[in-house]
Structures are given as structure tokens and as C-alpha cells.
Design brief:
The longest helix has 21 residues. The strands form four sheets. A nine-stranded mixed beta sheet has the order 5-4-1-6-7-8-11-10-9, with helices on both faces. Helix 3 crosses helix 4 and helix 9 packs across helix 14. It has 19 helices and 19 strands. Strand 6, helix 5 and strand 7 form a beta-alpha-beta unit. The chain folds into two domains: 292 residues, Glycogen Phosphorylase B (Rossmann fold), CATH 3.40.50; 209 residues, Glycogen Phosphorylase B (Rossmann fold). It has 517 residues and is α/β, with parallel strands linked by helices.
């Protein structure tokens, strides 16, 4: 690293932290949702950082329009955004194909959902090379390149292929599967080799890291590890890399401040009027078959059947945020969820009481925080999850320490929260039903003590703690070593990439070439 601390944080992810949509002939900009954006937005702000990602559209956007959109958006965010443009076919086969019909289900132990189409793999590699070319354009050799998640595992190997020298590290936000499941991937050897081109790789949990190392040992003879604790050194295939377990977190203070705001208090009053004095149970999930929403609804139905005293005294508010509905499996999932909601309400509704309030829509952060405050119980029961930040967000917003968290043992957050959450097996319908009953009738003192301890741990290990520890492990530098500075300019010189290549200026006009490269 440069001794003058001139290196910048460069985030590389599938999506920019905004989405471009054309409505009535005009481009509109909306913030992207998700754990990655909420975690990294406060980190990059005002540090001269860069975020490289797809714009979210396959339509051609001219240079002038890109400047008009991303220039102001970058100034508002406090860091520079540079686009990668993808064609409709690339989105179909790289994103919806390989990323979400192969890696996503496989890494979540749901291999029956996989579609091992060879063309998907070819497009995945091609698009990863396109991202690597964007990194070479928009960054300098001394910059710190932080690549995120399963869509971009091959970026470092593509940088190597292009003879671009960058210090690249990687964080996997989703789980890493066990050996017997990973071996089903036809391109398993190539994908593991791609991982090995990073200097540092981190996973959400010790289980994920152990699974990754087990796969290396099985696939490559002579693999050995050295060290103990959260970070170990792996020697494999003439490479020496650091591999860590580093659970991601949230901006705790941001959530607690909003939870105590007048705006949230006003929303809370209105919501309480509509739901009377019932105990409110909350589920908040993106539409995805890994989230265990049908199993949760069936468990709620069983609780109402098994414990009649719960009827007319509890209400489930289930938010399902639309996602990937172009994928057939997701369309079918939505239909199943809505059928279950209809069946439960049809069986138990009485005058003045509806057991399930279901919303299939996105909600603002303010609305979400008001729902977190409203909820007496949060049901976070994924079949498998890398972390699940909803569990942490809910606890952060329980500023009166009255809530109860029911948490799946298959969520990554279980490793940190299992002592004070009510733990369940998300496949155990009756077990979840019993947990709902026990949470409803839990003594106030026990609720208070459990939630106080949960909130204390999240406060101590927030997103800034996560980033600081990641940077220390990956670079030997802390977050404070990336001081506030001006944003990267739109125009600057490309570093030479070979003896025949000259420096040349570039800006958003380079993005147009991405469509053809």
C-alpha cells in the first residue's frame, strides 16, 4: 500500500447502490435496497471512494445522460459511482441464469432448484471479465479493491488474465455449502481457483469458512491451513491467502435514532389503532424460497389451531418485498404464499379480527422501522441465510427492550444471537408454533433481559466494527486510515496495462464501450 495513504476504497458489486428506470420517456433514480447497500453506504461516504456496479437497466444510455444521472447521485451519496452496462442477454444468463439458478440455490443447500446450463457459466465468466475491465478503467494500482458476493467470484482471476495489478479481496454475503453439495457444481474446480486469486476472502460464519477450506482440501492435494481464530492462512495451489469469518452487521445508531424519531412515533400511533391491542408478530422478507415464508405461515396456522387462546389476541404482519419475479420459481412461490394467507384468514377471521395482514410491496426505511417498533415478536425463520440483517435491525429498533426475536438456527446471525433469541428449526412447523406461544406469554422481565443483551452486542459489533476489522485483516489498515477526502474525479488517466498501451483519459464514455466489450 502507498505510504501516503493515497489508496481509495473501491467497492465492486453486481448492482450500484441505485437503480435506473425509464418512466414516460424520462430516467428516474431510486435507491437500491438490501444489506450490502445499507452496510456500505455510510462507509464510503466522503472518503473519496468508488462504487462500481450494474445500473439495473439493459437499455442503452448515452454519455451525457449518464453524466446527468450519476454525477448528482454521486455528489449526494458522497462517493463516485461508475457504471457497468449489461445487455438483456447477459442479465438473463449471467444474473438470472448462473447467479440465481445455479449459485444461489446451490449455496443455500437447495440444489433441487439448480439449472446447470453450460451457457450460463460462459456468460458468468464473460460478465465477470466486463467488471474486471471496469475496475481497470476506474481504479489505480494503489487502490483497495473490495469485491462483493456470489455474482462476481471470478473478477480477480479476470484481472489477472488482463494483466491488471490490483490488490483484491472478497466477501461472500451468502452461505458457502458443504463439500457434498458443492461437488455437484460442474465447474467446481474453476470456481475454487477463481476464489484463490484474491488476497483475502471472508465469510459470514465459521461454518462457511470451514466448508470452503474442506472443499479446497478435497479438490487440491497438499492444501494446508495455518493459524487459529477468526483468520487463518491457507496454502493451496502455490497460493497463500488469508481466509476469515467476519459476520456483517448494521448501522446501529442510525436505526435507533430513527426508531426514536417523531416521524416513527406518529406512524406507530396509527398502526396501533388499526391493530387494536393485539400482540403483533412481524415477518419481513424478500420474496425468495430460502426465506421459509410458507413454512412460517403453516407454523402460524398450527399455533392458532393448537392454542385457541391465541385467536383474536395475535396478528401476523407479513411483508414480502418483490424480488426476481422474472424467475418461474419465484412466481410460483408468491402464488403459494398468497394461497396460504387466504387459507389462514378464511379459517380463522372473525368480525373485527384478521389473523394475517399480508403486504407484497417495498416499504420505506421509516415505515420498516415503525413496524419493527410495533412488533412484539419478530419471526426470522429462513431455511438458510448468510446472515439475515432483519434480525439485527429489529433488535436495534426495540428501544424499550420489549420485543422477542424468534430466530432460525440456519440463519448466519444465529451464531451471534443464539443465547438470547428463541431458537427454532425452520423446518419444524410444530416447534415454531410452540415458540410463538411461548413468546406471547414470556414474562416481561425475561423479554427485557434477552433484548437488552441482544441490543448491547449489536451496538458493540455494528457495521463500522465489521468494516474496521475487515480492513485490518485484509490490509493491515483501519477504517480511519481511509480519511475524508474529495470524490474521485469523473475524468482521470488509466494506468498502463501493457507495454503497447498508453495512458488515456476516460469518463462515463467508457461505460458505453462496456456494451460492446
Amino acid at each position: 500500500m502507498d505510504g501516503k495513504n493515497t489508496s481509495r476504497l473501491v467497492i465492486v458489486s453486481n448492482r450500484l447502490p441505485l437503480k435506473l428506470e425509464k418512466k414516460e420517456g424520462k430516467w428516474e433514480v431510486t435507491p437500491s435496497s438490501g444489506g450490502l447497500v445499507s452496510a456500505l453506504n455510510p462507509i464510503l461516504k466522503n472518503r473519496g471512494g468508488i462504487w462500481i456496479g450494474w445500473t439495473g437497466t439493459t437499455e442503452h444510455i448515452g454519455t451525457d445522460v449518464l453524466r446527468q444521472i450519476l454525477g448528482p447521485a454521486s455528489r449526494e451519496a458522497g462517493y463516485r459511482m461508475f457504471p457497468v452496462m449489461l445487455s438483456a442477454e447477459e442479465v438473463s444468463k449471467y444474473y438470472y441464469g448462473f447467479s440465481n439458478e445455479v449459485l444461489w440455490p446451490l449455496f443455500h443447500d437447495l440444489q433441487s432448484h439448480c439449472n446447470f446450463e453450460p451457457e450460463y457459466w460462459n456468460y458468468y465468466r464473460q460478465v465477470n471479465e466486463k467488471f474486471a475491465r471496469a475496475v481497470s478503467r476506474y481504479s489505480r494500482e494503489e487502490d483497495f479493491i473490495w469485491v462483493h458476493d456470489y455474482q462476481l467470484i471470478s473478477v480477480a482471476s479476470k484481472l489477472k488474465k488482463l494483466k491488471v495489478k490490483r490488490r483484491s479481496v472478497f466477501f461472500l454475503h451468502i452461505p458457502f455449502p458443504s463439500l457434498d453439495i458443492f461437488l455437484k457444481l460442474p465447474w467446481r474446480t474453476d470456481l475454487l481457483k477463481d476464489f484463490l486469486e484474491y488476497d483475502f476472502i471472508a465469510f459470514q460464519t465459521a461454518r462457511d469458512r470451514r466448508n470452503f477450506v474442506d472443499c479446497l482440501r478435497a479438490m487440491f492435494r497438499g492444501t494446508r491451513t495455518k493459524g487459529r481464530g477468526p483468520i487463518v492462512t491457507v496454502h493451496c495451489m502455490d497460493r497463500k491467502i488469508k481466509v476469515g469469518e467476519m459476520p456483517i452487521s448494521i448501522d446501529y445508531r442510525s436505526f435507533t435514532r430513527l426508531a426514536a424519531s417523531e416521524e416513527v412515533k406518529d406512524l406507530l400511533k396509527e398502526q396501533r389503532k388499526r391493530l387494536h391491542k393485539n400482540t403483533v408478530i412481524l415477518g419481513v422478507d424478500r420474496l425468495d424460497y430460502t426465506k421459509g415464508i410458507p413454512e412460517r405461515l403453516r407454523a402460524y396456522q398450527m399455533a392458532l389451531r393448537k392454542y385457541p387462546e391465541l385467536r383474536e389476541n395475535i396478528t401476523l404482519v407479513q411483508i414480502v418485498v418483490p424480488s426476481r419475479e422474472e424467475v418461474p420459481a419465484y412466481k410460483a412461490l408468491r402464488e403459494r404464499i398468497e394461497q396460504l394467507v387466504s387459507a389462514i384468514n378464511g379459517e380463522f377471521t372473525t368480525p373485527g379480527w384478521v389473523p394475517v395482514h399480508y403486504m407484497h410491496k417495498s416499504v420505506t426505511k421509516t415505515e420498516l422501522v415503525s413496524l419493527y417498533r410495533l412488533a412484539d415478536i419478530a419471526l426470522v425463520t429462513p431455511l438458510k441465510d448468510g446472515m439475515n440483517l432483519v434480525a439485527k435491525e429489529y433488535c436495534a429498533c426495540q428501544i424499550d427492550n420489549k420485543g422477542v426475536l424468534i430466530l432460525s438456527e440456519f440463519a448466519g446471525s444465529a451464531a451471534q444471537m443464539q443465547k438470547d433469541a428463541v431458537m427454532v428449526n425452520s423446518y419444524d412447523i410444530e416447534g415454531i408454533a410452540d415458540a410463538i406461544y411461548n413468546a406471547v406469554y414470556m414474562q416481561p422481565r425475561e423479554k427485557h433481559d434477552r433484548m437488552r443483551r441482544l441490543r448491547r452486542d449489536i451496538r458493540r459489533r455494528d457495521v463500522f466494527w465489521w468494516v474496521d476489522n475487515y480492513l485490518r485483516a485484509a490490509t493491515g489498515r483501519a477504517l480511519v486510515d481511509f480519511p475524508e477526502s474529495e470524490m474521485a474525479p469523473i475524468l482521470h488517466a488509466i494506468q498502463p496495462q501493457g507495454p503497447r498501451q498508453k495512458n488515456r483519459g476516460f469518463g462515463y464514455e467508457a461505460a458505453e464501450k462496456d456494451i460492446r466489450s
